[in-house]
Amino acid sequence: MKKSILFSALCASLSLFVSCSSDDNGGGGGGGNVPIPIHATLYSAANGSNQIGVYNFTPDGVTNGSRKISSANNSGIFYIKGTDELIVNSVEQKTTNVYGAVKTSENGADLNLRMSALETINNPHDVAYSDNHIVVSDGEMGSGFGKFHVFKKESSGLVLRNTLEVSFDVWGIVFIDKDLYATVAETNAVVVFKNFLNDYTANAFVVPNKRIQIEGINNIRGIGSDGGVVVLTDIGDENHASDGGFHFIANFVSKFEATPADGTLAFTGKQSRVWGNLTRLGNPVAIDYDQSRNIVFVAENKRDGGAILFFENVEAGGDLRPSLTFTLPKASSVNFQRAN
Q1: What count of Cα atoms within 13 Å lies in the side-chain half-sphere of residue 69?
Q2: Domain boundaries, the chain
Q3: How far apart are CA 219 and CA 147, in angstroms?
Q4: Which residues contact 172 (CB under 8 A, 6 or more apart)?
Q5: pLDDT tens digits along 261-305
Q6: In the CATH hierarchy, which fold is given to the domain comprising 3-338?
Q7: pTM of model > 0.85
Q8: What does residue 255 show for φ and ψ, rounded to 5 degrees?
Q9: Which of 281, 274, 291 is nearest to 225 (CA)?
């Protein structure tokens, strides 16, 4: 049975939500058969199941539903609004899958597999999408090497355009305009590849245009961005289930560019950090952000078995309780998409 969290139409704060029953595809909340428009959706995936979490934001609240896919171990997710397709990396199948007709599918239904990459992706971690191209980060932690596979999504299927090799452990990736930003796992660094799709078109061993360190982060993983804000996760000691956190950095690109190459973006006055026992963060491996609602979404992979956590008003940082928590064993990925 799905959960629904309701809030006043005059309030944007998640802390004011109360429980009620609702239908994931439009009904509920005492509204009879009148459809409730979906204004935004958060999608999640996990290492421990074939469940895709679907959290719909409507004028009357947030409904929590799910779909099923063909893989039981997944890392990296992205919803394409224009074609109603969901990209999911399968760790189990060592590939990237694209599922169709997502919005019209029923709660609990199996999603229709539309296409898969034919090439082997040994250890997929994250996925980014831009201009009909899919980028997948691939690498074994601790190896000191990684890959970015670039696929062109065509009507006939996924076509591998090229593969880029790098001399660092890869994990989180996100497009900001035409530039690809990536986290350097096992460190506190972020790198950028400028004009990524146009300037990196052949198979090659490449070096990023710039690399900086983020003060306060111990072991970086996820990255998300919206409206000039970048959010980054820190898993701390991956064998410790309660020392994780995330960083919130407004005007990130300008701060990144102002920091010297191989320099460090200072913590004080530049960023804020959410961490502590109340946060329920231990190994947060993926993250996303919605500026319009000022909400941070985190996939917590280990603590309490795994969960999707919603945080609001995080600018001051500190030991904050999640506004909402949805259990998802070994949660690995989140992607937030507004309807318009």
Answers
A1: 39
A2: 3-338
A3: 19
A4: 125, 126, 137, 182, 183, 220, 221, 222, 223, 224, 232, 233, 286, 287
A5: 999 999 999 999 999 999 999 999 999 999 999 999 999 999 999
A6: Neuraminidase (2.120.10)
A7: yes
A8: -70, -40
A9: 291
